């Protein structure tokens, strides 16, 4: 399964550029196999993306903006839903992928309540050789194992955000300086 991220390589919006960078950086940090599809210079990509974003997910003007994320042909969501999944530690479920071993993320089937315990066990039953306390302790500590990959991904995107904010502040300061110089020259 390949994740498809629809991007605009020549967007004039810094907000869109930052969102695209955030998605790509996070997927790279998690080592998720993905393909970047440019809608700015490829009309087929743009049309495919627009046709395959569900109507209820399109903005009021009907034209979805990048980044848009798909798992093959299946729509996953836009940046906002990706960000929510990232915050909820459920990116793999968002992408329709199984979480890697040792991940804090609960597999999709467990999120839906379809899988509990081992096969053949009913809820409330305890596996042979275990006590109810053992099972409860396993469930409590299962989410405590923080995988290094997920933490590194969060750190990388946080660092990227900080760098982008610094660059934006510097650019804003430069513009203010230029505006002040222009005003001073006009006053003279």
TrEMBL record:
Residues 119-141, 149-188 have a biased composition (Acidic residues). CDD domains: GRX_SH3BGR. Pfam families: SH3BGR. Residues 106-118 have a biased composition (Basic and acidic residues). One of its GO terms (cellular component) is cytoplasm. Coiled coil: none annotated. InterPro entries: Glut_rich_SH3-bd, SH3BGR, Thioredoxin-like_sf. It comes from the Eukaryota. Residues 94-188 are annotated as: Disordered. Belongs to the SH3BGR family. This is SH3 domain binding glutamate-rich protein. The gene is SH3BGR.
